[in-house]
Write a structure and sequence with these properties.
This protein is 0% helix and 30% strand. The chain has no helices and four strands. A hairpin with a 5-residue loop joins strand 2 and strand 3. The radius of gyration is 16 Å and the shape is elongated.
Length: 66
């Protein structure tokens, strides 16, 4: 399975936890998974991601410039 996540353009640079959960129709985690590591909200840590500061490309003001 492949999942794609879109982050806010103005997300501050930094180190973030990545967590997964099975949620209900309202987006609230409700199901325990068969793995260790659940937090109080039934989210499971799968790693971390480092968001780097945005580098401006001369002559381009889009978020996805080459």
């Amino acid at each position: 399975m492949t999942s794609v996540f879109h982050l806010k353009k103005d997300l501050p640079a930094g180190l973030y936890d990545v967590r997964v959960a099975l949620v209900d129709d309202e987006g609230k985690p409700r199901t325990r998974l068969g793995i260790e590591g659940a937090d109080r909200e039934l989210r499971y840590g799968v790693g971390e991601i480092l968001i780097l500061p945005l580098e401006k490309v001369a002559g381009c003001d889009k978020a996805d410039c080459p």
